[in-house]
Amino acid sequence: MRAQAHTLEGVAAALLVVATVAFTIQATAVTPLTASTASQHIETQHERVASGLLATERANGNLSRTLRYWNGTGASFTDAGDDGYYVGEPPGASFLLAVEETFGDRAVAYNVNVHYVGEAGERRVRRLAYHGQPSADAVAATRLVTLYDDQPVTERDGAALVPTDETVADVDNAEGERYLAPNAPGHAYAVVEVEVVVWRT
Asked: What is the mean pLDDT of residues 4-32?
């Protein structure tokens, strides 16, 4: 009887050891997958937020106003840096200010690019805001914006971007000046694609 009890205790102890080892192996195997899943969730969230922001800012006109905040003489965005894009504080109540307010405090970096069709029909890109080289986990969201011949170039008035007396077509036609993209035939000046690239720092 005593021998049988010892045998049962031995079996129970062996089962406990096996269960402990199995649990340890399982926990070790799950850890990297869990981290990967969490990382993917963050990237997906960033992409959705950027996409939603682009949709909202296009709907309220802010995206278009920012694209028309243009210095024809310098052939660059107004108040941009020497390289023609923004690296510091965004101008006025622009789309870039909304991007900064959305992502600036989230330990992430972002770039904003404008894609358009060049005179030879080639796809070209101009930086609107630049904060470095994106990492491998970067995500991007895009939105198309149509610009029209009779839309006014904007200027800064306090915290707002307001229309001027000059249209984007006027800028393109003025001597020594040119606008962001070539003027396409018809009433629509150009269709451009705004891209927001976001990555964790």
From this structure: 41
Q: What is the pTM of this model?
A: 0.78
Instruction: From residue 107, give the alpha-carbon distance in Å to each of 38, 110, 137.
Output: 16, 10, 14
Phi, psi (deg, nearest 5) at residue 130? -140, 130
**Residues 91 and 68: beta-carbon distance below 8 Å:** no
Q: Label residues 30-54 b or e (16+ Cβ within 10 Å = b).
A: eeeeeeeeeeeeebeebbebbbebb
Say what the pLDDT of residue 150 is: 96
User: Per residue, what are the HEC states of 136-190?
Assistant: CCCEEEEEEEEEECCCEEEEEECCEEEEEEEEHHHHHHCCCCCCCCCCCCCCEEE
Q: Is the pLDDT of residue 14 over 70?
A: no
